[in-house]
Structures are given as C-alpha cells and as structure tokens.
User: Fold this.
Amino acid sequence: MESIDKNLVAIIMAGGVGTRFWPLSTHERPKQFIQLFDDRSLLQKSYDRVAGIVPDERVIVLTNRQFTPLVREQLPNVPDHNIIGEPERKDTAAAVCLGTLVAMKRFGNPVIVILTADHLIDPVENFQQTLASAVKEARETGALYTFGIKPTHPATGYGYLEVGQKTAMDQDVEHFQVVSFKEKPSAEVAGQYLESGRYLWNSGMFVWTVDAIFGELALHLPKHVEHLTKAVEKMGTNQWEDELQERFAALARISIDYAVMEKARDVRCVAGEFSWKDVGGWLAIQDFLAHDANGNFIKGRVHALDAQGNLVFCDQPQETLAMVGVSDVVVVRAGEKTLVAHKDRLEDVKHIVESMIAQPEAMTVSGIRSPP
Assistant:
C-alpha cells in the first residue's frame, strides 16, 4: 500500500476482561488473547491488519498492566516500550488520551489509527483500502474519522452512526458526515434504521491526526489531558509507572464516544465494505461455526436429539457432548469449567463471572447421598 501516509501510528486497545466469553475467556487470560478459530488470537489478528502498513516501532498496545506479559508473548515484534499497561480500567477516553500523548511525544503529529482487539474482519484487503482512504482524508481535512459498517441485518447488539451528507468518494470508499451517535436500539428501532439506509454500525475504530484529536480532548476532557500529560512526562524514567498510577486514579471513567465524538466539531466516517464482527459474546461467533439442519451451531463432537437452535463450543476436540430435548441454549466447555445459559440470558454471564471473582467461596458444592 504505497500511497498511505508514512507518518502513521496504530494504537491497539487491548484492555478488556472479556467476562461475556467465560469460561474460555478468564480473568487471567481474557478473550483478546485466546484462539477462537485458528492459531491467531483476536489481538494478533488486530495486529495482522496493520502489519506491513505500520512499522512495528509505530504500533502501540494499551492493555491492563497485568496483561503486558501476554501482549509481549503474542506480539514479540512490538517493542517493549510500546506496550503500555494501564493501572486500572477507566474506559476508552483514558486509553485514547494516553495513546495520543505518547504518539505526540514520540512522533509529532502523525495520523493515528485506533483499533480494538476484539474484532473479526474479512477480507483484510478491503479493510486496508478503507483505512488508507480514511487516513488520507483525516490528514487533509483535520476531521475525526470513525469506521461505519453497512448493516446486513437489524442488529440490536451494536451502536449506530446516523450519517448525513456524503463528503467524498475515494475509489470505492464512501465518506459521510456523522450526524449523531445512537445507542444499541430495540429490535423495532434497529429495523427502522436498516430500512432508512441512513445508519451504519458503529465499529469503535477511529482515524485522526494527533493535532485534531488533541484539540478536542483539550476542549472536552481537560482533566484527562492535564493528568496524563504529567504522567507521559515521566515516560522512560523509573517514576513512570507510579506517576501513571497516581494520574489514572484521578480520571473519570468515560468512553471516547460520550466524552468527545458526540460533541466534536467535525466527525466523519468511512463506510466499510467488509465483513465485521464485534466479538462481544458467544452469539457473535455463531456465523463462524458449523451447523446442522436444526440450527445447532457447533464446535466439537456433538450428538443432538430433538435439539434446536443451540450453540455448543468445546475447546478440546476430543470431548463429546450430547444434547437431548433442549432449545436455544449455549453450552461451552473449556478446561474444568462449563457454561450453560439460555440465549436470552447471555448478557448476564458477566454478572455471574463478576460474582465468582468477588465471592469464590459462595458457590454451591454438594455430593451424592449414599442410598440406604
């Protein structure tokens, strides 16, 4: 991709805990580090999308401090000083602000590409073409760019972008002004969005120059800028981690969409013409699994009798699972842990996982009573 801006930095946000993907995703090794379909984790796939476009010394990974060894293990070509461990989770605004200040200190005014480590995208070539177009326009216009995805169905699990005037057509890539950001809708509203043709899925990926995003951060999040500037001044010294921890503790927890994107002066999007999945929970991988005539989506050795609409995921290929007379259930086997949940209750998986972490002794343990 010869024409792409040479002063480019990729920031991968990889700090999530992946509770909705329990038991395969755990507190010690969350979903961005696991291999769902092949030998590349979700984090590695995010890196692969920009490898060859962005040099390794310009790839920055923001993660939770406890996960920095996993990032080093999975991305050995990324320099150690580019793997930054956040001392606590303060949502995406803190990550974006920190990454921006680091990029500014090291590279001046590059174009920054913000990626997340929980997406599945195919084909990568189409994504890269769309990325190159967004990079060019972000540099020329100073607009904040996000990636919109043309919806294929009335999804209720994604936020949406309402788009207005088309601002550019770069080869096959359409550019639009973003009118508003919409929360995850009801099924009825999602259907209206799809029918109108004016809404795209909000991917949570961004492109902008350092100068453009810094101006908006300074305007809308001055405390973030103040605290994290002080921290980044200590980067490369033995005071860095302590300073970062102290400054992070003072930050409000807020997303970049709420804090900046919904208020910014010039927000645009490119319309992605590629398959995109935000791997937020077990149903997100359904389309990538084999299925039988009764709509059971399966990974592993499964025998089903009078069972319909289930999802079964066995981490170990030698395991055998049998289902009889059940419908709309998700069953996941990983190691010595098993999840059984109705599809309608999958959002609650994170709650029971959080409960298990907070109160590990609260589980019900029982044996079998001997017969008389």
In short: DSSP finds ten helices and 18 strands in the chain.
